[in-house]
Structure formats: structure tokens, C-alpha cells
User: What shape does this take?
Amino acid sequence: MQNEQQAAKPLERRIDMAVPMADIEKGVEQRLRKMARTVKMAGFRPGKVPFKMVQQHYGAQARSEVIGEAVEKAFGDAVREQNLRVAGYPRIEPRGGEDAAALQFSAVFEVYPEIRLNGVGGRAVERPRIEVGEAEVDKTVEVLRKQRTAYDKTERAAEQGDRVVIDFTGRLNGEVFQGGQASDYPVVLGEGRMLPEFENGIVGLKAGEGRTFDLTFPADYQVTHLAGKTVSFEVALKGVEAPRLPAVDAEFAKSLGIADGDVARMRAEVRANLESEVNKRIGARLKEQAMQALLDANPVDVPRALVDQEAESMAEAARQDLANRGADIKNMPIEANWFAAQAERRVKLGLIIAEVVKGHDLQARPEQVRALIDAQAQSYEQPEEVVRWYYSQPQRLAQIEALVIEDNVVNWVVANASTTDKAVSFDELMGNAS
Assistant: This one.
């Protein structure tokens, strides 16, 4: 066998190989004779079929199998000989030549990149800082009150925050358009389900009153045949209900799971939950910055085969998620190429992180794994059962180990990058900033 390695694309390799035809023929005959011992044909007892008939019926199959195994062995030997890390599967191409005594072919494949890690010392990382105080607890309690809003019938005119019931008809060029008509339609004014201009046309009406007004849809409106168009709406108001928020009292505390209705205990729980959520969001921001710092510091080419595999895996996960939600995925084709950019980022990070972990001894330690499992188990009624559940299945344990490794890498980046603390507001961190 003669090998010759040729570089094409940065990570693409080609190895030219040849297998003596004598070896192929010998292998075919050995396989056919082995088959002849058990092969069954009408008119013959098993093992008594003439060899020529076995050759006629099974010769092509045997040759294909022997050639496949020979090619696979030749490729494997060449890869080991040249110490190559193959990514994905090779593409085998026949290769013509003057030597009829040998089967000549080429294997085209990709290899893993050689990663020489660069430091992250010059990379900027901002660590959000926020203190959860009484003001943040007050805001959260107010949100919880609004989630439990009750509505009472009122005879006054509709205001922002009211729940109203309306009939409406919309006309474009004098014709009722699709989706432009409804009866007994409930709307909470100010909730944002309808266009602000439409809701403004309802404000000030009392039950039994109506109004006609023009409305121009935004140029980027999602219903394309209405985008930028001016329509006429007729609205009839059938009822107005004023919002009533619950008092912050024992009943309210009980509705949040505080059995004895102690409001102070309720606020303490709200605060503890807020602090936990704040820590999660700070961790998520640090992780995103740390991963980006690693990518920026370590530009790397990645094998297309690995990206394609990751994109297909992500597409399959999306299909499964939709199926679990009851969607008919047969009518919702999800293409792997939709995830190409995200898949490439994941593959790059996976390769870089593996080198960081190896180079800086950031493997998950048993005590770290146990600490994370214990932390997750605390939110369940029987934590010890959750701990046993994780340790009873290697796959579950591996998921926790991966999270620990990720945390170790983030902590390493934060410790070695140019990390500064940045005060942020509660609303900004929670995504409520206007």
C-alpha cells in the first residue's frame, strides 16, 4: 500500500492508497468458501451447493464486502501511521491508474484543528453587581399582585388598565378584511395585545356606546396586506370592568404558599427567590462574556463535518421539542441549515474549552459535582432521593459534570481576563428596562 497525504482546504486531507488485487481476489474466494458451508439453494442440502453456483449468486456481494473492508483497513492503517485525528467520515473516491494489479482509491476527509491557546488577559469582562433590597422586593410583590388582578363591573367610561368587552368591524377600502371582525372580544387596555391606536379608540367609551375611527397599520406590520394601510374601525363597547388588586395581607401570602399567612415570611421568601434569580442571571451574563472572550482570543477553523452533525442534532432537538408541545412536525419542516451559525459557534467553543480544561486542570472534581447536585436537590421535597437519582445513572452524572466543567472554565476566564465590576439596575438585569 502506498500513501500520499495532500492538503486542500485548511482542515481537509487526501490520502491516496492502493490495495493489491491479489489480496482482493483471495479475500473474495475465502468469503465465498465460508458462505458455501451454510448457503441454502433449492435442490441442494445446506453446504452441498456447487462452488460455481455460489460464485454466480453471491460473487458480487462478497466482492463488495471485501473491497469495503479492505478500504476501511487501508484508511485506518494510514490514519494511525500518520497520527491523524479524523473528524467525521471519509469520502472514498476511485482513482484511475496504469497499475491494473492494484485497486487504487483516495480518501478525502477532515481532521481536528491544532489549537494553540492564547491567554484572555487583554479581554474585557464586566461582572454585574446588584444588591437586592426592599425596593426590589416591593416591585416583585407588585408584579405578583397584578398577576392576581380581579375585575369588577363599573358604569364609568373605560380607562387604561380596564378589561372591556367589544364588538368591532374593520374595513379596508370599504370592505371587511380577514381578521378584522369579532364579537364579544375581551381586551385589557394597556396590556399590548392590540395596537395602541386601537386601544385609544376605546378609552372614554361607556357600556352601550360606540365609535368609528381610522387607524394606520405600521409599515412593518406582520400581516403584510395590512402593513402601512389605513383602515376604518367601528367599535361597540359592551362592558367595562375595573381592575382590583389584592391587598398584601394574610390571604395574599397564603396564595403564594405561605401556610400561616405571615406577610413578613412571604417577603423573606420573595427576597430569597429574587437573590437566587439575580445570581442566575449574573452567572448567565458572565458565562456569555467568558465564552465570547475565549472565541475572540482563539480564532480556529472547525471541521465542516462536525458543524453539520451539531446542526442536525440541534434541528432534531427542535423537532422533538415541538412534538412534545403537541405540534404536527410533519407540516413544520425544520432544516439543519437554520442552525448552522449557532452550531459552528458550539463546535468552536467545544474544541477550545477542551483544550482549556486539559491545559489548566479544570476537570470536574467529585466534591464539586456533589455540591451542585446537593444545590439542585434542595428545591425538592426529598433531596436525598434526587441525589440518589443522579448517582444511579452515569448519563445524568455526566450532565452535572459538564456543568461543573463549564463553571470552572468561566471562573478561570473571569480570574484571568480584565474583569471589572459594573453596577446594574434591577430592571436592567431582569430585562424590564424600557
